[in-house]
Amino acid sequence: MMGTSRITKVVQRLSSQDAHVRKQALQLLKDWRRDGLSFEEGCQAIEAAAGDWPEDDQGDCSQALVAAALSHFNHGYDNLLVNFFSRISANARWEIVHALVGRGDEPAARTYLRLVDSYFAAGILPSTPLAGFAKSEQASTLLLPALLQRAGADLVGYDMHLFALHAAQAGWASRIILSRSSGSILEAYHRLRERMRRIEQPMIGDWIWNDDYLDDRAHASLLLDFMSFLTGDAVVEALEGALASYDPRLQHFAVLSMVRQDRVVDTKVLEAVAASSEVRNYLYDGLASLHRLELFPARFATQEAFAESDMVNWLIFPTELERSPHEIELMNTFDNDNASLRYYLFRFRTHEPHWAAKSGWMAGLSGPFEVAAMPTTNAGGSTFSTFTVWDEKSPFEHFREITELIGKPKT
Questions:
Q1: Beta strands 362-370; 341-349: pairing state
Q2: In which element (H, E) is residue 368 found?
Q3: At 362, phi and psi to the nearest 5?
Q4: Is the peptide bond preceding residue 126 cis, with omega within 30 degrees of 0?
Q5: Distance CA 404, CA 407 (A)
Q6: How far, in Å, CA of 385 to CA of 382, rounded?
Q7: How many CB atoms neighbour CB 110 within 10 A?
Q8: C-alpha angle with apex 164: 158 to 170, nearest 5 degrees?
Q9: CB 294: neighbour CB atoms within 10 A?
Q10: What backbone phi and psi angles, to 5 degrees, belong to 334?
Q11: For every one of its 411 residues, what pLDDT tens digit does the chain have, with 9 covering 90 and above?
Q12: Which residues make Cβ contacts (< 8 Å) with residue 71, sequence separation at least 6?
C-alpha cells in the first residue's frame, strides 16, 4: 500500500545515523499533520513510536510519530494507545493525553481512565491540564470517582483536582461522589500542608515566594476552594486551620469556602486578607459573586487600594517580578481627555537578593478604571511596567511611556 510505504520510508529515515536525514523526516511528519494520516498509517506510526530512537537535539521521534497519528483523532486508535503507552517517550505520552483531553467526550474519557488504571501507579502518567473533560457531563461523571480517589499531592494530582473543581463548579459532581471523595481530598491537602509548614514562618515574608512552597501553595489553594463543595467536621477543621495560616492566599480561599457554607468568619481574618495586595481584589470579587460584599473591610474598598492590588498581581506574573514587590507607593493619577477613565501610577521596588533590587524604585501603571464605576477591580487592560527606574523620568513621562507602548484602551 502506498500509505504504508510512506510511513515505512519516514521511519527508516528517522533511524538514520545522519542527523540531517532525521531532521528532514521529522519535518515530513510535521507537514503531514496538516492533512492527517490514513487510519492504517496512523496505526503504523503509533506502533513505530515504540522504537528505540536516537536521542539528539533534532527532535523526539516517538512524539513526532504519535502527534502525526493523532492530528486527525480516531477512536480506533484507543487500544493501540493504551497498549503502547509505556513503550513510547514521555513526550509522546503527553501527546496522547493532550489529544484525549482535546476530544473531551465520553469515549476519550474512557480511554484516559484506562491509562489511569494501567499506568498511574507506575508514575508515567504525564501532567497536563484535564479541564477539557469537565465540559462534558458524561465524561465528568465517569472520571470523577476514579480520579478523586487517586489524586495525590503531586503535579498529576493537581491536574486531577483542578478537573474535579471545574466539574463540580459545572454541577457534574453528585453528593455521593463528593461525600466519598472527602477523605482523599483531605489526605492530599494535609500532605501538602505538612510540606508547606517546613517553609512557613510566623509572619508574611519572602518564604511565600520559595519555589517549592509556591507549587504546594497553588495546590493547597485549589483544594481549599474545592472544600466549599464538601461537608463534615474534618472539612471545617481544615478550613479553620487555613484561616489561622500566615499565608493570605490560603486564608482567602478558606474565607470564600466558609462563606459559601454560610459559616462565620472572624473580622480579623477578613481584615488580614484584604490588607494583602496580592489577594485583596480576589477577595472583593469572590465576595461580590456570593452577594456578601458587606463582609469586605470598608477601609480597603477604595479605588487606590484596588489599583494597587491590580498592579501587584501584574508584577507577580512569572514573566515579570514573579513575586509581589517589597514596597509599593501610589505616586500620581492621570485621567483621559473626558475624565471618564483614570490611571494610577505607582513606584515599587524589591530587596536583595531579588534580581530587580539593583534598579531601586521603578514605575508601574494600573488601569484605566471607569470613574463612574468606582470603586471597581476591573482594570481596562493597560496595567504594565517597563521596569524603568523611577528617577529617570517625571511621573507624566512614565505615564506617557507606558500608555504609548500599550496603546489607547477601548472605551
A1: antiparallel
A2: strand 362-370
A3: -130, 160
A4: no
A5: 5
A6: 9
A7: 16
A8: 140
A9: 7
A10: -140, 135
A11: 444 578 999 999 998 888 889 899 999 999 999 888 999 999 999 999 998 887 767 789 999 999 999 999 899 999 999 999 999 999 999 999 999 999 999 999 999 999 999 999 999 999 999 999 999 999 999 999 999 999 999 999 999 999 999 999 999 999 899 989 999 999 999 999 999 999 988 887 899 999 999 999 999 999 999 999 999 999 999 999 999 999 999 999 999 999 999 999 999 999 999 999 999 999 999 999 999 999 999 999 999 999 999 999 999 999 999 999 999 999 999 999 899 999 999 999 999 999 999 999 999 999 999 999 999 999 988 999 999 999 999 999 999 999 999 876 544
A12: 32, 33, 34, 36, 37
Closest CA to 133 of 157, 156, 166: 166
- State the amino acid at position 218 in one-letter form: A
Rounded alpha-carbon distances, angstroms, from residue 322 to 209, 344, 356: 8, 21, 11
Give the Cβ contact number of residue 43 at 10 Å: 19
Amino acid symbol at 118: S
How far apart are alpha carbons 193 and 200 in whole angstroms? 10
Q: Can you tell me which residue has the cell 464538601?
A: 230
Is residue 248 a contact partner of residue 233, using CB atoms and an 8 Å limit? no
- The rounded distance, in Å, linking the Cα atoms of 269 and 266 is 5
C-alpha cell at 217: 501553595
- Tell me the three state secondary structure of residue 318: coil
Count of all residues that appear for the chain in the document: 411
3-state SS assignment for residue 348: strand
Contacts of 296 (CB under 8 A, 6+ apart): 270, 274, 283, 284, 287
Q: For residues 242 and 190, is the Cβ–Cβ distance under 8 A?
A: no
Place of cell 499506568: 119
Dist CA 75 CA 96 (whole Å) = 12
- Cβ(350)–Cβ(364) under 8 Å? no
Quote the cell numbers at residue 155: 503535579
Distance CA 61, CA 344 (A): 51
C-alpha dihedral over 77, 82, 87, 91, to 10 degrees? 80
Q: Which three cell numbers stand for residue 364?
A: 508601574
Q: Between 137-150 and 106-119, two packed helices, what is the crossing angle to 10 degrees?
A: 10
Written as nine digits, the cell of 360 is 531601586
